[in-house]
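Researcher: Good morning. I'm working through a list of sequences from a screen, and I'd like to move beyond sequence-only analysis. For each chain I'm collecting a predicted structure so we can compare shapes side by side. This is the next one on the list. No need for commentary yet; just the structure.
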Amino acid sequence: MTYQAKIKEFRKTIEGNGQSWASIDPESAARMTIQNRFPTGLDIAKYTAKIMRADMDAYDADPANYTQSLGCWHGFIAQQKMISIKKHFGSTKQRYLYLSGWMIAALRSEFGPLPDQSMHEKTSVPALIEELYTFLRQADSRELGMMFRELDAARERGDEVETRRLENAIDNYETHVVPIIADIDAGFGNAEATYLLAKKMIEAGACALQIENQVSDEKQCGHQDGKVTVPHEDFLQKIRAIRHAFLELGVEDGIIVARTDSLGAGLTKQIAFTTEPGDLGDQYNAFLDCDEVDPANITNGQVFISRDGKLLSPKRLPSNLYQFRPGTGEDRCVLDCITALQNGADLLWIETEKPHVEQIAGMVDRIREAVPNAKLVYNNSPSFNWTLNFRQQIYDAWEAEGVDVSAYDRAKLMSVDYDATDLAIAADEKIRTFQRDASKRAGIFHHLITLPTYHTAALSTDNLAKEYFGEQAMLGYVKNVQRQEIRQGIACVKHQNMAGSDIGDDHKEYFAGEAALKAGGKENTMNQFEAA
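Model: Good morning. Structure tokens for this chain:
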């Protein structure tokens, strides 16, 4: 419905309610409605799921259409990210949000900073989703409010061309609300617990949920040791639980991202249930590190399984966990991925130990033999030393090609001494094109950085503290923060406006008319930035 049509609709409603509603302005009501296009989180989930599904189809047609996101730990961070994207690129198309369980644990738990082991309150996950979308909706309201002010000014000048341009811009306004891929960790319990939390996350606005195949009560960060996976059927129960949650809430096209940590997980907590050779449980158990049993040497407490007519004893650790045979990680990843896609998952996430296109592609090629349109979400993780990894990749490639690499020490390639070398320049170019190359070769539909804003907040705060508390004092803030905000057009330089003061003034005028006590008058110091 267009802006003018919405005004007309409200005028009819107001007039239909008689004199008691006569003081309600239909255009003000229309503006407030347009500024809040998503009354509930479910409205957001339904809207963004359609966007993400369309993007997945576009990627299938051409892998150059990959998507990206940055992890955000606060609504303000997400808001500024999307405002920046609109400012620099003119559109939010193919740009999402990522919600990291790691950052919730480290930054948003009532217990204080925690490791990424699912010890944070599960309710903090939907709470952050709701917060992210609250800030994005406020960004819409703020930007549209400024457009309404420009419209009023154009009308006052009698500028009909500008009036029509602004009305058309309002009718075709692109929202800051974009899809979010939200981390549900390993489900925070059994399948019922996963279902209940999934519902809360979807109701808060999430259209895509990422779940991993680790044991809930033994969950570890994907880039740490000690990961323990579960048999496939246990994981599939949780995938089904999430799908039921989506269907129950009317988000039929919600997206499930199935993550496998098997590449770095050498342990399992249980032996899979199996009834016949070659079934899924038997395939899982085939990866266990076992010794053939000599009946004469059975020891107390040994556990046995039978395979291929033999009695085997899986190696069990004092922690009561069982270990997999070394070197089986890739095979387990491939089986995990195929099984997940064949049982309701939409996208895959393979947690790797390094960003290497061919390693990822090797597994994806095998997966696509069974599921041709298999697609990945990939963690461009800050846990990787990108500089060292890619310099070593270039070193190895050059060495294999017969290039003289005697000027380089492979173990010390991170050194600043190499920054200006041909090797470092080649490595940086491979980092720059990594997302494009991996999307084309390795089936990666979505690239994300899990924790970028955690690191940028730390870096910028360190730089400010060093300057402000040192010799530069106030100049450290003015020169490196405020002056840069002004010159780069950063929206929050007008922090009162960013926090909603102009929106509040508009509402006061809608509600109180000439009696409104507004904050945005000529004495507002924010006006000092108008000349910026």
